[in-house]
Structures are given as C-alpha cells and as structure tokens.
UniProtKB/TrEMBL annotation:
Keywords: 4Fe-4S, Electron transport, Iron, Iron-sulfur, Metal-binding, Repeat, Transport. It comes from the Bacteria. It comes from Cellulomonas humilata. Residues 7-36, 173-204, 206-235 form the 4Fe-4S ferredoxin-type domain. It is found in: Cell envelope. Its cofactor is [4Fe-4S] cluster; [3Fe-4S] cluster. Its main location: other. This is Nitrate reductase beta subunit.
Amino acid sequence: MKVMAQMAMVMNLDKCIGCHTCSVTCKQAWTNRTGVEYVWFNNVETRPGVGYPRGYEDQEKWGGGWVRTKRGRLKLRSGGRFTKLAHIFSNPRLPEIHDYYEPWTYEYDTLLSAPQGEHTPVARPMSLLTGKAMQIHWSANWDDNLGGSMETMQDDPVLKQMSESVTAELEQAFMFYLPRICEHCLNPSCVASCPSGAMYKRAEDGIVLVDQDQCRGWRMCVSGCPYKKVYFNHKTGKAEKCTMCYPRLEVGLPTVCSETCVGRLRYLGLVLYDADRVLEAASVEDPTELLAAQRSVLLDPHDPEVIAGAEREGIPRDWIDAAQRSPIWSLISTYEVALPLHPEYRTMPMVWYIPPLSPVVDVVTGSGNDGEDARTLFAAIDRLRIPVEYLAGLFTAGETAPVTAVLQRLAAMRAHMRNVNLGTDQDPRIAESVGMTAAQ
Ligand code: SF4
Ligand code: SF4
C-alpha cells in the first residue's frame, strides 16, 4: 500500500440553483484575459443537455479518457502521445470555438449614449473575438429553454389545444444543474497524452497542472481529457486548466468556487488513497464493479494502518488530521451518497456528486402535490421525476442499483430530519436505514 494525499470535492446537486456565481468568480480570478475569453474552468451545465463544449460526452467523437484492451490494460482513447502529432493541425478531435460558444460582450455605449426616445434602447451583443455585432445562436444553458414550455403553452391559444399526451409529457420534463471543474483525476489521461511532459500531477496533493514553460501547444491534452477540461489559450499558444486554486489552498483558503457558492453545495477536502491500486481499479471490466473498485481506492483516514502508511510516505500529521476532519471520505465511503462523474472514462475523477432527489411523478401529475412528503419519496424511489436511469448514465456507467440506493438513503434522511425538526413520531425503519436510532 502506497498512501498518497489528494484534494477532492463533493458537490450536492440538490442544492445547485444554477446561479453561475461560481463560474463568474472563477472567471474573474483565472480567465479574465485575452486568449481565454471562451474558457470557463468552472462551468454549470443544464441536465439533460449537451454540456460544454457541446457533446463532450461523445467519447467516440472526441477521443478522451482510457479504454480497456482485451488483455485488461488501459489504452488512451485519443491514441497516445505521438500517434497523432503528424495530424495536429487537422486533429478532428479538437473542439472548435462553436463547440464551446463565441464569447461576447455588449455595446454598452448604445445604452449610455442613446438619446431619449419612445423605446428603451437595447444593448447589442458584440463578439469578443471579432469586435463585431453578432447574433447569438448558442451559449451555456441554452438547454434551459424547455423550462419555459409550460408557460408558453398556457399563454398561447394554439398551443393550449395541444393534445393531453404532449402536455403530460411536458409536465414530466425535468432539469437540474451540474457544476463542473477539472476532476483532478487519480489516473489523468491529459497527463498521459502530453508529448512535452508539461502536464503533471502534484505529488503532495494530486492537483493536476500545466507547466507553462514546458507546454508546446500540441493540444493532445485537450483531446485526451474526456471531460474536456483543458483549454487552449489562443494568445499564448499554451494549454490552461483549473488549478484548484492552489495558491489559495496553500495559504489555507478554499477554492474561489467553493467560497462563493451560493448554495453552499461544495465540500472541499483532503482524502488519502492507495496509489498502488489506482490502475487496477481503473481497469475493472465489469461495470457493476467499477464504482465499488473506484471507491475502494480511497482509504479510511482513521485506520491505524493507513495513518502509519501516510506517515511512512512523509504526509504531514496536520494533513492526516485534515483528511480525518474532511467530509469527503464520509460522503463517498461511509454514507456512500457521493458518486463519480462517468467512472467509465477510467481516469478516476476526484470531484464526486450527490445526485439530486426529485418528486415522485404520479404525486406531481395526480394531485399537484410537489412530492415533498419524504416518506412518499422513500417508498416510491423508482418513480422519481428525474429517472434513475438518467442519473445512472452520468454517475455509475448505467448501473441503476447504486443510484437507487443513494436516493433512498437521501430520502430516508430527509424523512428522518423532517420528523426530528417537527417533533413528530419517527419511523424506526427509516431511522435505521440511515444508520440512526429513532431517538437521534
Ligand atoms: Fe486531466 Fe482534469 Fe481532464 Fe482529469 S478532468 S483528464 S485531470 S484535465
Ligand atoms: Fe450552483 Fe453554487 Fe455555482 Fe450557484 S454558485 S451555480 S449554487 S455551484
């Protein structure tokens, strides 16, 4: 066992309101510069939706992450460090600006200098790349528009006549927000793809960085990252990415996105892991075992054997203490409510997510009740508005059982805490299922 430390994050998706405060404050801190106008180290995407850059989860098209060979080895899907160097200028696996979005600002002068008139002046969007007025056809969260469908239908006499089946379909539409940063993976395919040795994973805390002096702008890391979280700076000709705000962490401050998150949904902390088991866990073949294997690489920071291993590797005592205090291990391994994003990419991501609970569909459509009765939720977890299959596609390589288990646990905890707060009778079965006695 080789114990190493890793900075990790858990995000509770039930709390994200899609306000983009995290994205904007991150941009102000890190990418408010020429050459990276289109870059959001932190983005918040609408789900279901195509994400940023558009369709990045289509690994066949973009070629990121690892694939398992018949012999059980891992191979870069993008083809490795050298195979495509000859094609670098026509690499079809590099997203183009329209796959991200064309960044724009507004011609504020139009507002400030417009003469008084009958109509309110409108600021027109202006491309940050060309400086010319532009039509916006696509940008982040365009997928949100479905959220307005019901309103439109109620106001429009023609749409009102649409068949009941369509209405029912819209009533069952769902969406939620998925904030994303670089996953600071334990097995980062961006690092393995870099022909210049410019990308590296810091030994002390696992943060993945780009050495700007070493980077030669090959962009193999961009195609190599399955989450598309490395970006090319068109001014400097170098790759850039989320740094997990390491200059802030080093002086004891949280990342900008964690500190400014309005929903307080980002848990940030150290975990200890077994570096000797990373490759074995990343190459597990059976999707039903992938999640458990990836979970098992994280080590219990209270285990005396792990503590001794950490001390042997020179991990400072206060870091071990920090790992013990951090909620990350508990959320992932003790309570098993946090799940990794796309474990099937086999990079061993270190930003995990607590999936969102949602109302039970027949409660919503039948009675107008919003399904807040947590006991109903607990009992009807297979009929939630956000289909378990959809969440499984994001977090468990399509396996529904672990997602159902997480949602049931969350619903049980909600039911339990509601009863505690209301001072009403607690259901001992529910208390038991979240590991508490009814008295607690
Ligand atoms: Fe590298 Fe981050 Fe992509 Fe993982 S998510 S492969 S660490 S850029
Ligand atoms: Fe979600 Fe927090 Fe970002 Fe707002 S600041 S979009 S609540 S993650």
